[in-house]
Design a protein that fits this description.
With about 250 residues, the protein is mostly beta strands. Helix content is about 10%, strand content about 60%. Strands 1-2-3-5-6-9-10-12 form an 8-stranded antiparallel β-barrel. Strand 2 and strand 3 form a beta hairpin. The radius of gyration is 29 Å and the shape is rod-shaped.
Amino acid sequence: MTRKSHLLQVATAAMAFGCTLCSSDRPPKFETSFKLRTGIQIASFEDNLKHANYGFGAVLGYNIAKKDTISIELGWAYKPGDEFRADLSNLPISPNAPTPPTHMAGRTKNEVQGLSLRAAYERQFEYFGAIGGLQIGGSRFKHEYYGNVANTSSDAASLGAGLYRDSYWGTLYNNPNSISPFLGLTKRFGKNSAIEINLMSNTYESAEYVHVVGQALGGNAVWDDDFSVTNKRTALHLEFGYVVRF
């Protein structure tokens, strides 16, 4: 009887210890979430891009401690641009052109977008959390251009000696997979939702198509000497994000 009583006490203690573990508020090692964000540019305005940017992604997090999480997010980033009238007054002129152009018209549109990968570290405090990390990608620059330059107002069918009407058009891409750091604050609401406010240094490399005017006389589209110019950009953004945690 004593032996049975002893076994019963051991079993009861083991069950009590197991229930203590089950009732622990320790989070699971892995968690998934979905993030949806938008932002507003607050500094370094270039390339006639809109001030807003957008993004979303699926996140896999690993809780390395009760309050510390590292995560990987695979998603998409997008920053649109406005169509604008290109400044063609400073285009380089070919030695073949007898005179500079006197009639110029053109349109250009830029945007930044692409697949993005974010790596982040998050630390939870009593009332809020802090998050920081790096975004890789989401930085493919798209440059659409059209231009028409001429040293006459005549149409292409009635061009005389020494006159030209020079047109060019196309789409140029530049994708350096830039690295953009971010740092911000988080606020969790229960187990399933949170908000984020980040300061992000959005990095990309712009591209501009440059046409060399008058490489051939008459109505032509000769682009043999044309080239592109690239510039590294850093556009500071304030991001607002909503997180759905599963």
